[in-house]
TrEMBL record:
InterPro entries in UniProt: RmlC-like_jellyroll (IPR014710), RmlC_Cupin_sf (IPR011051), UGlyAH_Cupin_dom (IPR008579)
Ranges for domain (S)-ureidoglycine aminohydrolase cupin: 38-106
Transmembrane segments: none
Native organism: Agrococcus versicolor
Protein name, as recorded: Cupin domain-containing protein
Pfam families: Cupin_3
Length: 108
């Protein structure tokens, strides 16, 4: 088991998102699982500039780089950038507007 992972060295390959999920632009995304803690997966996720919809899982994440606005349902938007800790609930419908390529480390 690897105890230390240099997040700056983790390469996260991205692929275009499904057309049905894309609102604007040509965003791509991808993730790399790094570890399991109990039942939770820990990994790194990346999305390029654009706007896309998603349905969330229970997750906490820390933004490592980039900027985005996440619209939660129809009534709340949050702006996130490097250093922010965010929690999402399973089943939440979100819309991600990525202003600068976003990289996050997640626990889900």
């Amino acid at each position: 088991m690897t105890r230390v992972v240099r997040l700056a060295d983790v390469e996260v390959p991205v692929a275009p998102l499904p057309t049905a999920d894309v609102v604007r632009g040509a965003p791509a995304a991808g993730s790399v699982a790094l570890a399991t803690v109990g039942e939770a997966e820990v990994g790194v996720w990346r999305m390029t500039v654009g706007v896309a919809r998603d349905v969330e899982v229970d997750e906490a994440f820390v933004v490592l780089a980039g900027r985005a606005t996440i619209r939660l349902g129809d009534d709340e938007s949050i702006d996130v950038s490097a250093g922010d800790l965010v929690t999402l609930r399973a089943g939440e419908r979100t819309e991600w507007t990525v202003h600068e390529d976003l990289t996050k480390v997640y626990v889900a």
